[in-house]
From TrEMBL:
Residues 47-141 form the CoA-binding domain. This is Putative CoA-binding protein. It comes from the Bacteria. It comes from Microbacterium ginsengiterrae. Pfam families: CoA_binding_2.
Length: 193
C-alpha cells in the first residue's frame, strides 16, 4: 500500500476518478429555520485532529447521562487530556471536577458543553474569557447567540453534534454515515501530533 492509497476515495461510477484526502460529502448545509452554518466534515476533522485537550462543561458522574458516556469514551478511546467542569461535583470518573472553566489548570482546546439552552451564551463567554480554541455544543444544543459570541472572538464553533460520534467516525469506530463498522481492535487510535 502506498501513502496515497490511505487517502484514496473512489467516487461514484458517474464521476471521474480522482485521488483526494478530503472526506466525502464535505458540503455545509443550513437546516431549515436556522441561519448559522456550521463547519463541514473537513473542518470538524481538522479541529479534532489539532486539539489536545477537552473540557466537558456539565459533566456528570451519573452513568445514565450522555456527558458520562462521552467522558468515558474520550478517556478510553481518544488521545485528549479530558477535564470536567461541574460546580456540584468534586470528582468524576476518578478525576477532579472544577467549578468553572476559569479554575481549570490548562486552557482547553475544545469546550464541550452539556448544559441547558439558556446557559449556552454564558458558557460561550466563559470559553472566550479563558482563551479556549473551540466551543462544541452537543447533540440537541443549538444557540446562535452562543455561536456569535464564540465566533466573534475567533473560536471555532460546532453545534448539535456529538464529539464522541464525530471522533469515532473520523478514526475508524463508525462509518461516515454513523453506523458501527464492526471493526474490533484493542489498538488505541492515536492522532498524529
Amino acid at each position: 500500500m502506498t501513502t496515497n492509497d490511505a487517502c484514496e476515495f473512489t467516487p461514484p461510477v458517474s464521476a471521474p476518478a480522482a485521488v483526494s484526502c478530503e472526506l466525502p460529502g464535505a458540503s455545509v448545509a443550513v437546516a431549515p429555520g436556522r441561519s448559522w452554518a456550521g463547519p463541514g466534515q473537513q473542518e470538524r476533522f481538522a479541529l479534532l485532529r489539532r486539539s489536545r485537550s477537552v473540557a466537558i462543561v456539565g459533566a456528570s458522574s451519573n452513568p445514565a447521562r450522555a456527558s458520562y458516556f462521552v467522558a468515558t469514551y474520550l478517556l478510553s478511546s481518544s488521545p485528549y487530556d479530558v477535564y470536567f467542569v461541574n460546580p456540584m461535583a468534586d470528582e468524576i470518573l476518578g478525576r477532579p471536577a472544577y467549578a468553572s472553566l476559569a479554575e481549570l489548570p490548562v486552557v482547553p482546546d475544545i469546550v464541550d458543553v452539556f448544559r441547558k439552552h439558556d446557559d449556552l451564551p454564558g458558557v460561550a463567554q466563559e470559553a472566550v474569557d479563558i482563551g479556549a480554541g473551540a466551543l462544541w455544543l452537543q447533540l440537541g444544543s443549538w444557540n446562535e447567540e452562543a455561536a456569535a459570541i464564540a465566533e466573534t472572538a475567533g473560536l471555532s464553533v460546532v453545534m448539535d453534534r456529538c464529539i464522541k460520534i464525530e471522533h469515532a467516525r473520523f478514526h475508524g469506530g463508525l462509518h461516515l454515515a454513523g453506523f458501527d463498522t464492526g471493526v474490533i481492535s484493542s489498538k488505541r487510535q492515536l492522532l498524529s501530533r
